[in-house]
Amino acid sequence: MAWRAISFFFKTPAPKLSAARNPSLLAASSSSPFSTSFLKTKLPKSLRKKRKNPEDSPRTKPVQTLPNRLPALESLVARDARFRFLARCRAFLARQPERVLRLDDAGKLHRELGFPRGRKVVRSLQRHPLLFEVYRHADGKMWFGFTALMEGLLEEERRIADAMEADRVGKVRKLLMMSADKRIALSKIHHCRALFGIPEDFRDRALKYPDYFRVVADDDGRRVLELVNWDPHLAVSEIEREFVADEDRAKKAFRFPVKHNRDLDLDADDARKLNLLNTLPLVSPYSDGASLDLWTLEAEKYRVGVVHEFLSLTLEKRASIHHIVEFKEEFSLTKHTYQMLLKQPRTFYLAGTEMNWVVFLKDAYDENGVLIKKDPQVLFNEKLYEYAEMTKMEPGMRI
C-alpha cells in the first residue's frame, strides 16, 4: 500500500500554469529555449559611475593633513561629539517644568537632545545610567529624568554660576564692546552661552546691571542686549597684554608676509625682518573694524585680533566655526575666515573636519592637550564627564 502511494507521488505530473493566468509564461514560450544565465549582465568597470571617496567629503575630510595633526587636540573634538547628547539633553531637560520628559515625545526631538536621527533615545540614555533614569509613570507611559546624583551636580553648577557671575558679566561686556554697533541679539548670546560659561538665566541676570546693559527691541522685534557704558579698562585685548609681557614672543605669534617685488633681491634674513615689521601690533579688536577697507592688511589684522580675543574669552580657549559665524556681522568677519586662520598656524590650530571645524588657541594647551588654566566651570564639566562614562558608583565616591 505504501509502495503504491510512493509510486503515485512520482508519477503525478506537476500542475500546469495557463498562459492566460501568467502572461510572463507566454512571453517565455516565444523566446529562445536556451538559457542565457551565462551572459554578463553587469556593466564593465570602465562604464560604471565612479563613487566618491567618503574621505573626500567635507563632512569627513580632516582639516589638518597627517604630518600636521595634533592628536591631543583632535581627541578633544571627538570628546565633544561623544558627549553631545549629554550636553544638549541636560540643557533641554533642565528647562522642563518638572525636569522630566516622556519617551514618546523625546523620540521626536533628536535635534534638541543630540541623539542620532532614526535611533531610539533610550539607547543614548543607557550610556549614562548615573545621570539619567527611565521609569514608568502612573499614566502607564515611560518617562525619563535626572537621577539624584545629577540633581546634586546641577545644584553645584548653579553655585558656580552664582560665584562667577561678575566674570561672566565682564565677558559679555567685552563681547558688546567688540561688536560693530555695541549690541548683540540676546538669542545669539543664549545660543553660545556654554562657550563662555554664561548661565541659562543670564537674560534675567542682565537686568540687575543697568549701568552695563540695556535690553531693547530691534527693528524686527528681536530682544537685543545693548552696551550702556564704555569701559577703557576692559578694552584691552589678551594679545596686547602678552605683547607688553613678552614682545618678541608676541611678534612671533602671527605672520603677515609683505608682498614685495622680487627685484629687491632680499636674502632670507632681510625678508624675515621685513615681514616682522608687519607682524604686530595687531589692530585692536575693540576698535572700529567696520570702518576699515575690507581687503587691506590692516583689516585682516583686525579680524585675526577679533578671533583671538573671542577665543580668549571662551572657557576652553576654543570654539566651533558655527559659534564664530554666529557673530559674523557683529565682528565684520568674511567668508574667508577659514583661509585667514590657516595662515596663522603658530597661534591657531584647526581641528575636526572641513564642514565642522574647531579653532584652538595653541598656547592655552600643553603638549598633552591639557588646558593650562582651567575655569571652575571647566573643572565641573570634567567631573561630569567622568560620571557620564561610569556605569555604577565606585566605593567612597562623593559628589
Automatic annotation (TrEMBL):
Pfam families: PORR. Residues 28-65 are annotated as: Disordered. This is PORR domain-containing protein. Residues 42-52 have a biased composition (Basic residues). Residues 28-39 have a biased composition (Low complexity). PANTHER family: OS09G0473400 PROTEIN, PROTEIN WHAT'S THIS FACTOR 1 HOMOLOG, CHLOROPLASTIC. Residues 69-391 form the PORR domain. It comes from Eucalyptus globulus. It comes from the Eukaryota.
